[in-house]
C-alpha cells in the first residue's frame, strides 16, 4: 500500500510539472504569443529547469519571524494537498474506504491552517492581512462545496466516491441532471484553489502577493506545488462527480485534463473580481442555490423511498 501511494505521489508531482508547462503554453496562445519553447523539444524540459532554479536559490528567513511555523507551513500545505489523493477510488493496493467524501471535506478544511500560519508567522502585517483575506475566502466557498457534495450524498445514499461510478454508467452523467449545481461547484473550486477570477490570496501588484510575501526559494515552490496538486485533484473529483467514468479508463484522464484546461482557460479569459463582489457571490448567490438544491434532493429522496 505504501509503495503504491508513493508511486502515485511521484506521478502526481510529475503531472504538476507538466500542468505548469501546459498553463504557460495555453496562456501564451490566448495572448497570441509563444509559450516556453526553447528548452528541450517544444519546451518540455522547462518545468524541470524552473524547479532546479527555484530550489537552488538562497532560502531567506525573516529575522523577526517565528521560525518553526514559518518553515513548516508550506510543508503541511503540500502534505494536505497530497494526502487528499488517497480518496480517489483506485482500489489497487491503495486506501479505498466508504467515508471518502467525509475525509475529503475534513482535509479540505485543514488547508486553512497552513495558510493562516504562513501569514502570521512571517511577522509582517501585509502577509497577515493577506492570510486573513485568503482564509475568509476559503471558508466562505467551502460552505457551498460541502452543501453541493451533501446533495450528491443524499442522491446516491453513500459517502463513497466509488459509488458515483455506478450511478453514472451509460453516459447518464450528473452534469446533465444538475447543470446549475455543476456550474456553482466549478466556481467554488476556482475560489477554493485561489484561481482567477478569485485570486485575491495571490494578487501580484495591487495586493502585494497576499500571504506568501516573505517566502522565497523552496518555501515558495512548496506553496506553488500545493496549489497545482489541488487543481489536479479537484479536476479529478469534479470528473468523478459530474462526468462519470471509471478511474481505470482512459476517458477519465482525458476528462481530468479537460477540467484542468478549463481552470487555465478561465485564468486567460476573465478579469479579477472586485473584492466586495467576492463575498457577495459566496453568500448571496452560491449558498442559496446550493441550499435549494440540497432541500430538493432531500425531498426527492423521501418521495422515491
UniProtKB/TrEMBL annotation:
GO cellular component: mitochondrial inner membrane
Biological processes per GO annotation: aerobic respiration
Membrane-spanning ranges: 6-23, 67-88, 100-120, 141-161, 173-194, 215-234, 240-266, 286-304
Gene Ontology MF term list: NADH dehydrogenase (ubiquinone) activity; NADH dehydrogenase activity
Keywords associated with the record: Membrane, Mitochondrion, NAD, Transmembrane, Transmembrane helix, Transport, Ubiquinone
Catalytic activity: a ubiquinone + NADH + 5 H(+)(in) = a ubiquinol + NAD(+) + 4 H(+)(out)
Record's bilayer topology term: Multi-pass membrane protein
Pfam family, one: NADHdh
InterPro entries: NADH_UbQ_OxRdtase_su1/FPO, NADH_UbQ_OxRdtase_su1_CS
Broad class of the protein's primary localization: mitochondrion
Keyword NAD recorded: yes
Location(s) in or outside the cell: Mitochondrion inner membrane; Mitochondrion membrane
The EC number(s) this enzyme carries: 7.1.1.2
Function: Core subunit of the mitochondrial membrane respiratory chain NADH dehydrogenase (Complex I) that is believed to belong to the minimal assembly required for catalysis. Complex I functions in the transfer of electrons from NADH to the respiratory chain. The immediate electron acceptor for the enzyme is believed to be ubiquinone.
Family, as annotated: Belongs to the complex I subunit 1 family.
The name this protein goes by in its record: NADH-ubiquinone oxidoreductase chain 1
Lineage: Eukaryota, Metazoa, Ecdysozoa, Arthropoda, Crustacea
Gene name tied to this protein: nad1
Amino acid at each position: 500500500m505504501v509503495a503504491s501511494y508513493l508511486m502515485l505521489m511521484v506521478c502526481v508531482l510529475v503531472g504538476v510539472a507538466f500542468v505548469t508547462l501546459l498553463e504557460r503554453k495555453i496562456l501564451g496562445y490566448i495572448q497570441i504569443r509563444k509559450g516556453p519553447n526553447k528548452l528541450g523539444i517544444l519546451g518540455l524540459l522547462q518545468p524541470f529547469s524552473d524547479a532546479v532554479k527555484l530550489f537552488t536559490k538562497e532560502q531567506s528567513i525573516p529575522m523577526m519571524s517565528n521560525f518553526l511555523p514559518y518553515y513548516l507551513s508550506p510543508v503541511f500545505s503540500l502534505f494536505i494537498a497530497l494526502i487528499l489523493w488517497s480518496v480517489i477510488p483506485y482500489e489497487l493496493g491503495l486506501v479505498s474506504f466508504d467515508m471518502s467524501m467525509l475525509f475529503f471535506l475534513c482535509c479540505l478544511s485543514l488547508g486553512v491552517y497552513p495558510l493562516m500560519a504562513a501569514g502570521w508567522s512571517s511577522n509582517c502585517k501585509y502577509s497577515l492581512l493577506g492570510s486573513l483575506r485568503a482564509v475568509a475566502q476559503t471558508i466562505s466557498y467551502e460552505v457551498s462545496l460541502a452543501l453541493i457534495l451533501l446533495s450528491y450524498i443524499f442522491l446516491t445514499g453513500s459517502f463513497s466516491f466509488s459509488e458515483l461510478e455506478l450511478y453514472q454508467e451509460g453516459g447518464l452523467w450528473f452534469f446533465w441532471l444538475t447543470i446549475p449545481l455543476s456550474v456553482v461547484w466549478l466556481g467554488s473550486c476556482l475560489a477554493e484553489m485561489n484561481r482567477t477570477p478569485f485570486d485575491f490570496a495571490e494578487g501580484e501588484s495591487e495586493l502585494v502577493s497576499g500571504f506568501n510575501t516573505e517566502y522565497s526559494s523552496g518555501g515558495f515552490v512548496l506553496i506553488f506545488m500545493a496549489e497545482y496538486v489541488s487543481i489536479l485533484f479537484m479536476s479529478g473529483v469534479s470528473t468523478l462527480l459530474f462526468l462519470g467514468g471509471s478511474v481505470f479508463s482512459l476517458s477519465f484522464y482525458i476528462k481530468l485534463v479537460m477540467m484542468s484546461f478549463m481552470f487555465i482557460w478561465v485564468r486567460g479569459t476573465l478579469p479579477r473580481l472586485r473584492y466586495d463582489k467576492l463575498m457577495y457571490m459566496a453568500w448571496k448567490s452560491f449558498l442559496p442555490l446550493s441550499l435549494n438544491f440540497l432541500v430538493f434532493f432531500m425531498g426527492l429522496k423521501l418521495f422515491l423511498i
